[in-house]
Structures are given as structure tokens and as C-alpha cells.
Amino acid sequence: MLMQFVEFILPPLIAILELMGIFVVAVSAAIAFWRYLKGLLFHAQGDVKFALANGLATSLEFKMAAEILKTVLVREMNELMVLGAVILLRALLSFLIHFEMKQIDHTES
User: Fold this and answer.
1) Contact between 69 and 13 (Cβ < 8 Å)
2) How far is CA 18 from the centre of its chain?
3) CB 60 within 8 A of CB 93
């Protein structure tokens, strides 16, 4: 009974987390693009790279949360290996984005 409840509730929850990640990427990209255009047109100082990287890192956290929840639904070893590879790649991307954010922060200080 508990497993049926989990199998019923997890797919919508996973979809919501995925959509939240997509929304964060879209909003972050739009804001960063707006800051970029504002900098071009009005010569205003803006931290475009840092804002975009921060949004991407946040969205990856939502996406990784969805992937972690997917591990509960895995039935076969092949699915688990693919899911593990996706989680590993997203964690690597998150690490690289955080590294880039630190580099941006150090060059501006």
C-alpha cells in the first residue's frame, strides 16, 4: 500500500521539480539578457555572468532533486546506471558552475 502511494505521488512531484528547474533557467536567462542589453545600451555595470551562473546552479539543484526522487522508482539495474550517470553529469555541471562563479567573484574583487 505504501509503495502504491509512493508510485502514485512521485511522478507528479518529479515533474513539478523538473518544471521548477526549467522555470529558473528561463527566468535567469531572461534577467541576465536584460542586464546584458542594459549594459550595452546604457553602459551600466551589471554582473551578467554571475547572475546567469547562479540561476543555472539553482536550476541544477532542482533537477538533481528530481533525479534523486527517480531513484525510488527504478526497477532494473540498467535504469539505475543511466540515472546514476545523469546525476553524476549534473553534479559535475553544478561543480563547474560553482567554480566559474568563484572565478568571476575573485576577478571582480
Assistant:
1) yes
2) 9
3) yes
- Regions of the chain short of the pLDDT cut 70: 106, 108-109
DSSP state of 71: G
The reported pLDDT for the residue numbered 17 is: 97
* pTM of the predicted model as reported, rounded to 2 decimal places: 0.83
3-state secondary structure labels for all residues of 8-49 = HHHHHHHHHHHHHHHHHHHHHHHHHHHHHHHHHHHCCCCCHH
| Cell reading at 60 | 541544477
Retrieve residue 78's grid coordinates. 540498467
Whole-angstrom Cα distance, residue 67 to residue 56? 16
